[in-house]
Amino acid sequence: MKAVAGALIAALAVGPALAQEPEAWTAQTTDDLTLAYAVFPEGIAVIARCQAGTPELLVQGLQIRAPQIDVAAKFGEGRVHWTSWIPSDNGRYLIAERPAQLMRGFVNERSATLQFGQGDGAVQFTVTPPADTAGMAGVLTTCGQPLFHERDEAEPLRLSAGGDDFLREGRVIVPPRAARDGVSGWAYVTCITAEEGRLTDCEAEAEGPAGYGYGEASVRSLEESRIRGEVPPGRLVSIRLATLVN
Question: Does domain 2-149 have CATH number 2.40.50?
């Protein structure tokens, strides 16, 4: 990743005035990392990567400092979707909460608008994704993600773990590697509601740190949970589970 970061910094330093619309996603692959990126004339770099089976989407080049940023994304003529993004530990990147959904947008549509934040301080840019989508599609495929997913167009109802949304929460499951290394983690999961407050068809759409198994553990925990009856069956919901390892 250091070599990629250096290449991106050099590309961004050229400046928007000299930059051209990218024709393809630049792809790189190592033993444990598949990566694709593009630098746009707006001075923004979009980076997709699959590491240890975990997809991530990052943006570099925005000077935003906040613990969490609400981002509106619109691809082509589709609907606007709001998600949360968080800054990386070094503050250089913003990291998407639903990376695979956004990657598919860049693969399947020819325009993309992202608005970071709301109100007077919002930062918005519209780009034309590369026509050659092989690099981005390769990241999705490596991570076992489909190029199309019916779940992408539904707006999930966000539920709060540890709050009043749940009648009963499942076990706190710490993956074996995380327990051995003493590493805390998180997962962003979407599920379909069922009768009696059950959660079914749960999918981990993002997790961290990569390779520790927090996605699978969170899915198992949520499938043991029960939510309150105000949410009707058949509704897509999202939950972000954080697990602290002492």
Answer: no
